[in-house]
């Protein structure tokens, strides 16, 4: 077997107390999922069992939630944006969310609204999609260095897309300022003082994928995961999903690790210190969807309370995950996973091939009885870069 060493820094959470939040609960997740189920084309994304890979890696099960199959958008993010926009409109027009549908609302809305957001790609595509469903306008800002293919996905949904010369967090501030000046509705997946309602709804929307995964595990006669690896940008998906899983299974009975790129590891650094730590600079990681330097203050308390560990890793770990998922062992299903989607599996693979494999397995609590849940949060949202990594060996080991 090959042996090689990739950087995977693991920090135990010294501030863990297991306290969950009523905002990110099973009840809220099911409310969000009931909304998503009414959208034309809804179906749960696959939960793939990689049994041969699990055997190779020395664990009982590896389960991968494949979000590339979500509404034809190649990523999970619309779950949050669409739900938040629906909740916003329900509040504005005094509609019960249980009676709301995009089709019905589109036919009754007379005025035009503009939804504004900042994105590394997938969230903006979800907001643009929801605005298109409603016959409304979306303006999407992206940080410098954004891939043209991700820009085109947004433009193709009828939205305006502006690439700035700033990093992600500064672009968020620009979006907020411009929207206030022009009377637009901001649909952002991070929070700040005076802006918490919409990002809360977004995080609740993301939990639909966790509710599906738990249902699918039970259909597979799998009682529970022992481990979950959740990637984080600002930590909205990680917080929404972990909140649900911690309530269902108990935070103390679930080994949860939050995974980030080393060039944008704000949650990892916050986890070390026990309070929010921001990261600045360009954050030029291949994991574009995770290139965020300021943790979501709504998600952070839950991650601090319920995450077992925080992991910071180099870009080659995500690239390794992309290649392993795209080239499966034996009869395991093939999963097309993008840079931000594959990093959790990349961590498992990096541990397996590491010269200190036994120590790292022990550190992560992994053994022959472990059932590991991973979220492949995106497919090949930048096909050119996907092929450079998987075909041409970019960011090799």
Automatic annotation (TrEMBL):
<comment type="subunit">
    <text>Homodimer.</text>
</comment>
<dbReference type="GO" id="GO:0030170">
    <property type="term" value="F:pyridoxal phosphate binding"/>
</dbReference>
<protein>
    <recommendedName>
        <fullName>Diaminopropionate ammonia-lyase</fullName>
        <ecNumber>4.3.1.15</ecNumber>
    </recommendedName>
</protein>
<comment type="similarity">
    <text>Belongs to the diaminopropionate ammonia-lyase family.</text>
</comment>
<dbReference type="InterPro" id="IPR010081">
    <property type="entry name" value="DiNH2opropionate_NH3_lyase"/>
</dbReference>
<dbReference type="InterPro" id="IPR036052">
    <property type="entry name" value="TrpB-like_PALP_sf"/>
</dbReference>
<feature type="domain" description="Tryptophan synthase beta chain-like PALP">
    <location>
        <begin position="41"/>
        <end position="348"/>
    </location>
</feature>
<dbReference type="Pfam" id="PF00291">
    <property type="entry name" value="PALP"/>
</dbReference>
<keyword id="KW-0456">Lyase</keyword>
<dbReference type="GO" id="GO:0008838">
    <property type="term" value="F:diaminopropionate ammonia-lyase activity"/>
</dbReference>
<keyword id="KW-0663">Pyridoxal phosphate</keyword>
<dbReference type="InterPro" id="IPR019871">
    <property type="entry name" value="DiNH2propionate_NH3-lyase_sub"/>
</dbReference>
<dbReference type="InterPro" id="IPR001926">
    <property type="entry name" value="TrpB-like_PALP"/>
</dbReference>
